[in-house]
């Protein structure tokens, strides 16, 4: 009998211990997941309550807010509204009864939805009566630059106006502007009417005549051959990883035939001859010269440099993705070239073959050169504050990647300055920018086969200003699938100029 009692006692102790372990598991390990579970009645109530915090731009401009509804039969107690309409759709995202959240609404949902606030007095602490309220999120976006970027993109005299502009502060990583065309108005998808939400979602997710849709922002969720903007990376590979090639010179010619090319020549744009050192070849964007330079650099070094700038390898099973606080960001890809084939390597060195870049990545490359070789983590959130105005969270700028040494970055910066002034004959961006602006840029014109119809170009420009002192803004513009006669200078260049002009006007800089 005594033995049975002992075993019963042991069993009860084990059961009691398991209860304690499960309680600890629920209270601590699973607390966060249970608190935010959609099956939690509190969360379900909050969804219909929809009293969310305000999202503002850097100057306080309201981008999203909740307005108490007065309509009878409305499932929401509050309606989410977006006063700026489609201008910020790709950033704020939406808050939908049917589709959930996206964009910043998704990324900072834990702050924007109502949640317990810290006690403000002894009574609230003693009786656990602290209010449940949302926090507000302030973004880094500059409304002047955001509006200027969208206007420049959508009013440009282009054959196709879909594209993107991304503007960063190169020293902090703050996103100053990020626009994509097409875009969408979040007010429809955030309507209290599910049928309205469904109708708007269908329209906004349907590809336009240029095959893009508003719910998939080009800035972060589409990629294109970077064309000659990739020559910035090839140049950096030389100064940063193989300085013995810094005096490399290509004999002036209009084309070159590489082994494994099937006799197809790599020709310079327009068929003209080009050559010389990088000091001449980068401003003129010499394709055969940079293709030959890429072959000299070789697969391992060019691959390493592309990775240092944030490119993933095409055969990677877990590709690198920039740590931007938005969902859905896709990787940019550098062609993995093993075993080495010279023709493919030459094409990759000039941003063709299978190279792919998002507009965000183009801006990060420019920002890395501007910031002495260090790429800062891009970010949209500047600060989170609670209902009492107290700061809950502030973004702390931090490096994301070291792309190059300061010496290498300075050398490439000097080459990019030459692209935009008249020191080199036939520099591709000559005459676009006043010399007093101290602009450093690189054009890109990638030949692509249109989904239907003739060959087209994806036209790029990346760069920063000023190239003396401390650079303040870095930019990337891409306008894909232009007519075959299009160029990065002709199509993307004027858009960059308008954004730079807006920055100078806003800050009182030189004209």
Pick out its properties.
single chain; alpha+beta; 6-stranded mixed β-sheet; 19 helices; 20% strand
What's the helix and strand layout?
Layout: H1 2-29, H2 31-36, H3 41-49, E1 55-56, E2 62-68, E3 78-81, H4 89-92, E4 95-96, E5 100-101, H5 103-107, H6 109-112, E6 115-116, H7 122-127, E7 132-133, E8 136-139, H8 143-155, E9 163-168, E10 175-181, H9 186-189, H10 194-205, H11 218-221, H12 231-241, E11 250-253, E12 255-256, E13 266-267, E14 274-276, H13 278-284, H14 287-297, H15 299-308, E15 312-313, E16 333-334, H16 342-349, H17 359-370, E17 374-376, E18 381-385, E19 391-394, E20 399-402, H18 406-419, E21 440-449, E22 455-465, E23 473-482, H19 488-507
Parallel strand pairs: 1-8, 15-16
Antiparallel strand pairs: 1-2, 2-3, 4-5, 6-7, 8-18, 9-10, 9-23, 11-14, 12-13, 17-20, 18-19, 21-22, 22-23
Quote the distance from N terminus to C terminus. Answer: 99 Å
Q: What integer is the average pLDDT?
A: 89
> Considering DSSP H and I runs of 4 or more, what fraction of the residues is helical?
25-40%
Secondary structural class = alpha+beta
**Total count of helical runs of at least 4 residues:** 19
SS elements, strand count: 23
What characteristic shape results from the CA principal axes?
A: globular
Q: What gyration radius follows from the Cα positions, in whole Å?
A: 27 Å
Strand order of the largest sheet: 3-2-1-8-18-19
Query: What is the makeup of the main sheet?
Result: 6 strands, mixed
SS strand fraction: 15-25%
The low-confidence parts are: none
């Amino acid at each position: 009998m005594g033995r049975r009692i002992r075993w019963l006692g042991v069993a009860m102790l084990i059961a009691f211990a398991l209860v304690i372990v499960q309680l600890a598991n629920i209270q601590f390990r699973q607390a966060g997941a249970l608190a935010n579970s959609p099956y939690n009645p509190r969360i379900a109530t909050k969804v219909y309550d929809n009293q969310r915090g305000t999202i503002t731009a850097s100057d306080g401009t309201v981008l999203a807010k909740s307005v108490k509804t007065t309509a009878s039969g409305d499932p929401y107690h509050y309606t989410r509204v977006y006063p700026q309409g489609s201008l910020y759709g790709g950033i704020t995202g939406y808050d939908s009864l049917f589709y959930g959240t996206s964009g910043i609404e998704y990324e900072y949902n834990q702050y924007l939805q109502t949640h317990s606030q810290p006690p403000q007095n002894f009574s609230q602490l003693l009786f656990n009566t602290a209010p449940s309220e949302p926090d507000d999120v302030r973004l880094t976006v500059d409304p002047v630059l955001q509006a200027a970027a969208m206007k420049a993109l959508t009013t440009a005299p282009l054959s196709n106006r879909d594209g993107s502009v991304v503007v960063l502060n190169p020293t902090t990583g703050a996103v100053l502007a990020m626009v994509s065309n097409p875009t969408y108005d979040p007010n429809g998808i955030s309507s209290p009417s599910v049928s309205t939400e469904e109708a708007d979602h269908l329209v906004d997710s349907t590809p336009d005549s240029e095959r893009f849709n508003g719910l998939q922002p080009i800035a972060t969720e589409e990629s294109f051959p970077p064309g000659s903007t990739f020559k910035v990376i090839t140049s950096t590979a030389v100064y940063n990883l193989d300085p013995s090639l810094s005096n490399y010179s290509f004999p002036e010619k209009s084309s070159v035939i590489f082994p494994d090319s099937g006799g197809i020549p790599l020709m310079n744009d327009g068929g003209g001859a080009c050559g010389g050192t990088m000091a001449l070849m980068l401003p003129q964007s010499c394709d055969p010269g940079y293709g030959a330079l890429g072959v000299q650099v070789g697969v391992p070094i060019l691959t390493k440099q592309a990775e240092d700038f944030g490119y993933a390898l095409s055969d990677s099973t877990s590709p690198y993705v920039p740590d931007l606080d938005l969902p859905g960001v896709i990787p940019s890809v550098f062609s993995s070239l093993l075993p080495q084939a010279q023709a493919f390597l030459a094409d990759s060195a000039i941003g063709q073959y299978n190279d792919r870049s998002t507009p965000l990545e183009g801006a990060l490359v420019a920002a890395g050169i501007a910031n002495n070789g260090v790429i800062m983590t891009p970010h949209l959130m500047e600060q989170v504050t609670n209902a009492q105005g107290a700061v809950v969270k502030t973004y702390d700028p931090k490096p994301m990647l070291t792309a190059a040494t300061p010496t290498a970055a300075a050398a490439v910066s000097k080459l990019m300055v030459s692209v935009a002034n008249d020191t080199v004959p036939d520099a591709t961006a000559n005459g676009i920018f006043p010399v007093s602006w101290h602009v450093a840029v690189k054009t890109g014109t990638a030949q692509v086969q249109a989904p239907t119809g003739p060959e087209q170009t994806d036209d790029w420009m990346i760069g920063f200003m000023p190239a003396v002192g401390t650079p303040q803004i870095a930019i990337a513009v891409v306008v894909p699938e232009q007519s075959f006669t299009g160029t990065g200078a002709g199509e993307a260049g004027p858009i960059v100029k308008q954004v730079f002009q807006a920055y100078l006007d806003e800050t009182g800089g030189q004209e």
